[in-house]
């Protein structure tokens, strides 16, 4: 049985485990029909031209874990940003882990999607926000159909969250192959401020495919600072769909660090709903072997006097493949828009590949929009200069790569996250530089 058919037939079993009297039942039922019609994306679609899921879809994934797994903190401590105090929402094989988590309902909600979908006190929020900006494509529809668990974060107006929130998903390998579909909803009220760190981590070499959907709503003058750390095993693949709606004077920042995994696809979409807001999208990709990372971004400028800044750096070795498909749309009403997009790439080996497709669709006449894309190799003159100063070739190459990615790291606002990313990059490059950037 093909995976699509298995998932459609599994939906009936899924309904037996949830309350079908909830309003979200209608949303799920429509979504499974959408998935049945749309199916999985293929390379025939322009937006998926350079990324194929065909090999991933051949595995016989378990849709529901047969056994509940548990982990001790010492087993997974290194995957947390444990140097800081934080709220934690932790899932093991898609199931909430209470003893690894630290949630809260004191002045804010840092809790579970399952609770938000089922409890009457959250009904207004679910009615107003759930599945309101998620794009209707096959993968998002599939996630919506099986939406039950994930992170629910509701920050009331005027609340500055004093410590970051970590969302961690672990897969134990208890299943021979596993399909995970976390669903996150994040609502940040007027003048509120939150920092969030997200990570998906496989603990064994058993195949794992994660199809994640996150909806983020930044209300007036809200600040959302989001970090995605992607450094998984070669057996793990991730499709990360993140949709962000911004209101007047809000600021949303998303940093994506793609340093490991088999196939990684980041669908990141921003929708402007008010004036004088700012969107920041930055990313660093360092991969080798036959790894594949695809960044597909969209910033939809629909209101005047707004800004967006995109800056993605990629370093590709061996037979790895990178994709950058960045789109900026400026509607006729979005005068005084300032949109910037930059994508720079280094190919370490001749067998590495990068497919870059920057796109600007501008229908307004009073705008300031620019985009740039470069693909090259390390500067021979810079290498010669560093080696002439006694720096070995390996360290010299690493220094140049650090410098290449440094302007993305400079905008990281949590020092401990920046230090962790520096260490991960050093490990990827196989060097110890002895200092933090």
In short:
The chain has 437 residues and is an alpha/beta fold. Helix content is 22%, strand content 37%. The protein has helices at 3-15, 24-38, 73-76, 113-118, 123-129, 138-145, 380-388, 393-409, 415-429, and strands spanning 87-92, 95-96, 109-112, 151-155, 165-171, 178-180, 183-188, 193-202, 208-218, 223-231, 236-246, 251-260, 263-272, 278-287, 292-301, 307-316, 321-330, 338-347, 353-356, 359-362, 368-376.
Structure description:
This protein is α/β, with parallel strands linked by helices and 437 residues long. It folds into two domains: 272 residues, no CATH class; 60 residues, no CATH class. Helices cover 22% and strands 37% of the residues. It contains nine helices and 21 strands. Strands 3, 4, 6, 7, 9, 11, 13, 15, 17, 19 and 20 form an eleven-stranded mixed sheet that branches. Helix 2 packs antiparallel against helix 6 and helix 7 crosses helix 8. The termini are far apart.
Secondary-structure topology with pairs:
Blueprint: H1 3-15, H2 24-38, H3 73-76, E1 87-92, E2 95-96, E3 109-112, H4 113-118, H5 123-129, H6 138-145, E4 151-155, E5 165-171, E6 178-180, E7 183-188, E8 193-202, E9 208-218, E10 223-231, E11 236-246, E12 251-260, E13 263-272, E14 278-287, E15 292-301, E16 307-316, E17 321-330, E18 338-347, E19 353-356, E20 359-362, E21 368-376, H7 380-388, H8 393-409, H9 415-429
Parallel strand pairs: 1-5, 4-7, 5-8, 6-9, 7-9, 8-10, 9-11, 10-12, 11-13, 12-14, 13-15, 14-16, 15-17, 16-18, 17-19, 17-20, 18-21
Antiparallel strand pairs: 1-2, 3-4
Helix pairs in contact: 2-6, 7-8
């Amino acid at each position: 049985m093909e995976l699509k058919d298995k998932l459609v037939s599994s939906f009936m079993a899924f309904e037996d485990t949830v309350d079908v009297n909830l309003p979200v039942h209608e949303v799920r039922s429509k979504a499974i029909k959408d998935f049945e019609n749309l199916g999985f994306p293929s390379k025939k679609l322009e937006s998926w031209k350079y990324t194929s899921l065909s090999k991933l879809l051949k595995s016989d994934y378990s849709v529901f874990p047969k056994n509940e797994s548990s982990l001790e903190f010492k087993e997974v401590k290194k995957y947390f940003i444990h140097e800081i105090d934080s709220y934690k929402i932790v899932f093991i094989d898609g199931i909430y882990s209470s003893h690894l988590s630290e949630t809260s309902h004191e002045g804010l909600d840092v809790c579970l999607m399952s609770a938000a979908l089922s409890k009457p006190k959250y009904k207004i929020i679910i009615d107003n926000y759930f599945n309101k900006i998620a794009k209707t494509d096959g993968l998002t529809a599939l996630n919506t159909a099986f939406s039950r668990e994930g992170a629910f974060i509701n920050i009331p107006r005027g609340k500055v969250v004093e410590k970051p929130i970590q969302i961690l998903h672990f897969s134990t390998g208890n299943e021979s192959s596993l399909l995970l579909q976390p669903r996150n909803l994040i609502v940040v009220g007027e003048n509120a401020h939150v920092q969030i760190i997200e990570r998906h981590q496989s603990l064994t070499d058993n195949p794992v495919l994660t199809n994640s959907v996150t909806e983020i709503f930044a209300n007036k003058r809200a600040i959302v600072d989001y970090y995605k750390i992607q450094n998984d095993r070669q057996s793990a693949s991730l499709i990360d769909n993140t949709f962000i709606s911004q209101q007047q004077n809000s600021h949303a920042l998303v940093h994506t660090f793609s340093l490991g995994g088999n196939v990684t696809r980041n669908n990141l979409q921003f929708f402007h709903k008010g004036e004088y807001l700012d969107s920041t999208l930055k990313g660093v990709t360092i991969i080798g072997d036959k790894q594949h990372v695809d960044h597909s971004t969209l910033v939809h400028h629909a209101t005047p006097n707004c800004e967006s800044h995109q800056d993605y750096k990629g370093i590709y070795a061996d037979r790895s493949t990178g994709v950058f498909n960045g789109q900026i749309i400026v509607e006729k009403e979005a005068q005084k828009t300032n949109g910037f997009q930059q994508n720079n790439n280094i190919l370490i080996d001749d067998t590495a590949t990068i497919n870059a497709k920057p796109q600007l669709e501008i229908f307004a006449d009073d705008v300031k929009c620019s985009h740039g894309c470069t693909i090259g190799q390390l500067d021979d003159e810079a290498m010669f200069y560093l080696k002439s100063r006694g720096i070995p070739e390996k360290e010299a190459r690493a220094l140049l790569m650090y410098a290449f990615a440094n302007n993305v790291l400079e905008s990281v606002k949590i020092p401990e996250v920046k230090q962790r990313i520096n260490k991960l990059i050093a490990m990827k490059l196989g060097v110890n530089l002895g200092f933090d950037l």
